[in-house]
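Weekly sync, protein design subgroup
Attendees: M.S., D.O., the rotation student, P.L. (late)

Item 1: inverse folding check
M.S. brought a backbone from last month's batch and wanted to see whether the design step gives back something sensible before we order anything. D.O. pointed out we never logged the input encoding, so this time it goes straight into the notes. Structure tokens as presented (487 positions):
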């Protein structure tokens, strides 16, 4: 499980999207459990059963050729019967694992989207979706279980039939005065040992079909090579924090067209560069390239003149404080969440970062302050509070580069302004890249990059773009009046 988990956590977004979250969750938990059960059965049977079978077969061959042939026929029939049942069941086990993926996905949707579901009275609709997939899963599991249930009567029928056959052949041999009753009884005991040994081995087949499906699913994860790899030799940095996009183009895996096309700009140390544009213009995609969640398709992204592909991922991300569009917190205390990038951080540093993000305003009112517990995903705090804690988390590690992916949208205008003023003072030497929808958030930036369909249509200050970029001017006028914009 640890190996699979390590592999999954090192996947880039391209690999994560390929498998889907619910499928990876099933593979890391249920599939691993299936393999564990099969291995336990293997370890219990793999050593004693073959030794017993070989010993008994050697003894049998020395007793009677006719009785040995009868035993061999019984074993062949046993193997053929169980193999036939397994061949029918294996495809069903593949369906079971795929249906488990879908059911996990629906369950995850129901839990994470419970507020939306209730707001739209969609409980019946979601319950029907779950029941449909659950019914399908139940039917397939019942079919597979009933198919595998044939193994027990097959084993019983063949073992009893073999015993009868041995008595019949033995009686014939005794009548022909070839052997005696004592030899026949000894042979039947030995043949039982052979059959029991094969049965122990064949019992693994009850677990093995599903385990083999699970093993193939896990192997698919382990065999997937990450598209983002560390260089063998890392190039040195000047530790300045200058970010340069050099004719960068990018398209998602299997996409037909570029999401970003020929993007070129430079963000110098301490500068604030903002990105604005309509939904789908490529702003978040551009930010994901900086943190190397994806690699560029064409061009280069440079930090202090070094291509980020020539840096180890750990080195690159240690330079960046990243605040995602959707604030994500983890179960633990407020202090644990803010100090995520550096668990050894002192309480004073945590409090300072919270103050910069204006998170101290509500943390101080909590029962235990910075030791107050945060629920999984931060469900016990509001969206704005969650976002402020995420900003504090990024600021706390004192990065050279701060990246905000539309991170101020959950804040009210007053808090938005106050946080940005605090960042100017506290992180004045950090290069800041900001994706935003509000003109008020970006208008004080040193440079604003305007994107339309993945292309740069404007690059300059707020005042320059009001005069030279119609797209920016339209966005600004849709949010603020001409008087507020000074037009």
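Designed sequence read out in the meeting:
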């Amino acid at each position: 499980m640890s190996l699979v988990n390590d592999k999954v956590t090192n996947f880039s977004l391209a690999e994560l999207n390929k498998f889907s979250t619910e499928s990876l969750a099933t593979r890391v938990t249920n599939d691993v459990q299936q393999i564990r059960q099969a291995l336990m059965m293997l370890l219990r049977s793999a050593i004693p059963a073959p030794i017993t079978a070989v010993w008994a077969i050697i003894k049998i061959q020395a007793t009677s050729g006719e009785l040995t042939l009868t035993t061999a026929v019984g074993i062949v029939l046993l193997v053929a019967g169980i193999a036939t049942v397994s061949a029918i069941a294996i495809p069903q086990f593949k369906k079971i694992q795929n249906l488990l993926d879908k059911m996990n996905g629906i369950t995850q949707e129901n839990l994470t989207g419970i507020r939306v579901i209730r707001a739209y009275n969609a409980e019946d609709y979601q319950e029907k979706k779950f029941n449909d997939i659950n019914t399908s899963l139940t039917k397939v599991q019942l079919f597979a279980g009933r198919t595998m249930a044939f193994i027990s009567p097959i084993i019983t029928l063949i073992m009893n039939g073999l015993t009868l056959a041995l008595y019949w052949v033995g009686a014939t041999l005794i009548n022909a005065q070839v052997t005696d009753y004592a030899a026949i009884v000894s042979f039947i005991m030995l043949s039982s040992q052979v059959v029991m040994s094969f049965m122990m081995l064949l019992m693994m087949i009850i677990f093995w079909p599903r385990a083999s499906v699970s093993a193939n699913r896990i192997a698919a994860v382990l065999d997937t090579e990450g598209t983002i790899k560390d260089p063998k030799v890392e190039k040195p940095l000047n530790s300045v924090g200058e970010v340069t996009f050099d004719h960068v183009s990018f398209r998602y895996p299997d996409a037909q067209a570029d999401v970003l096309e020929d993007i070129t700009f430079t963000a110098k140390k301490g500068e604030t560069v903002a990105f604005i544009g309509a939904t789908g213009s490529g702003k978040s995609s551009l930010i994901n390239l900086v943190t190397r969640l994806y690699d560029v398709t064409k061009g280069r992204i440079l930090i202090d003149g070094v291509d980020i592909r020539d840096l180890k991922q750990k080195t690159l991300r240690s330079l960046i404080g990243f605040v995602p569009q959707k604030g994500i917190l983890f179960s633990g205390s407020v202090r644990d969440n803010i100090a995520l990038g550096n668990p050894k951080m002192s309480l004073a540093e945590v409090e300072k970062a919270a103050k910069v993000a204006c998170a101290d305003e509500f943390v101080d009112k909590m029962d235990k302050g910075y030791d107050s517990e945060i629920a999984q995903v931060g469900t016990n705090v509001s969206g704005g509070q969650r976002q402020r804690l995420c900003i504090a988390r990024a600021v706390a590690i004192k990065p050279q580069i701060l990246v905000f992916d539309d991170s101020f949208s959950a804040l009210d205008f007053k808090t938005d302004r106050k946080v940005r003023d605090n960042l100017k003072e506290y992180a004045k030497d950090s290069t800041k890249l900001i994706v935003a929808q509000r003109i008020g958030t970006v208008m004080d930036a040193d440079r604003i990059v305007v994107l339309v369909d993945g292309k740069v249509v404007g690059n300059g200050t707020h005042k320059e773009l009001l005069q030279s970029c119609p797209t920016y001017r339209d966005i600004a006028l849709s949010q603020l009046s001409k008087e507020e914009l000074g037009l």
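Discussion: The longest strand covers residues 243-250. The two ends are 62 Å apart (CA to CA).
Action: P.L. to compare against the previous round before Friday.
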